[in-house]
Amino acid sequence: xxxxxxxxxxxxxxxxxxxxxxxxxxxxxxxxxxxxxxxxxxxxxxxxxxxxxxxxxxxxxxxxxxxxxxxxxxxxxxxxxxxxxxxxxxxxxxxxxxxxxxxxxxxxxxxxxxxxxxxxxxxxxxxxxxxxxxxxxxxxxxxxxxxxxxxxxxxxxxxxxxxxxxxxxxxxxxxxxxxxxxxxxxxxxxxxxxxxxxxxxxxxxxxxxxxxxxxxxxxxxxxxxxxxxxxxxxxxxxxxxxxxxxxxxxxxxxxxxxxxxxxxxxxxxxxxxxxxxxxxxxxxxxxxxxxxxxxxxxxxxxxxxxxxxxxxxxxxxxxxxxxxxxxxxxx
Length: 331
Hints:
By secondary structure, this protein is an alpha/beta fold. It has helices at residues 2-26, 49-65, 80-87, 102-112, 148-157, 173-185, 197-206, 220-225, 272-286, 289-297, 307-328; strands at 38-42, 69-73, 95-100, 124-132, 135-139, 164-167, 190-193, 211-215, 229-233, 261-267, 301-302. It folds into 2 domains: 37-133 and 260-328, Bordetella uptake gene, domain 1 (D-Maltodextrin-Binding Protein, domain 2); 135-256, D-Maltodextrin-Binding Protein, domain 2 (3-Layer(aba) Sandwich).
């Protein structure tokens, strides 16, 4: 009887210890993170710059963290669908968002229209701006204008000329650029929304859409081959990759100037030690020699900013474009 009681007590103690160990594992120090695969949500279809950067980072993080880092493309609604998935994910560091400048723009646009399912400023925590990638406005080669100023002159001088411009959705970068250009140049074009930069580029390449644009890396090959034409860059100075292409400021459209980027976010309330670990991994990834070479080939600049610097850029760009988006009702 005593032996049986001792065995039961030992079994109970073992159960308690096992439960305690499981609880300790779940609440393990961030140094134990990660213990299972991670997911980077890209809110655009495969093939665009954001997707390429995410895959470069994911590959290096997989090698350095000892866990698979998957890229999950969830395109649609100007990036809102993918961002919403991450906003509602558990704040444990296992679900990340790789986004770009579309994030502050589409978030502002849809928030003003009261159609945003999350708060871009409070539902996310920044990890790092991984890279800076300049934005370029492009056209089909058949467009008889060498730059953005000439495009304005062409459309004003031919009011019956029907040109389309494409974007990746309401409030996205090209939507804001297109509508701001129409306002400042006093011209008209028809807006066509796509689910991502890759399908948008394809329609500009075929000429179904005359005007497009994206981060330079996704169209650099076509620009060099002459199958796309660069009308302007949105950077603050001319680019080494396109030294003959003027900036929007040079062409009289200073309101279109901004810094393009790709950055990683996690859900708000993710523990700071986990964010710090992810930040360390992202910085190491974008500074790896193989990645630096690949990014340089894409005309992208490795950054690896701090979370605080990233959040400051996000808020600054929201403040920059909120009046424009409100004025033009880009929803």
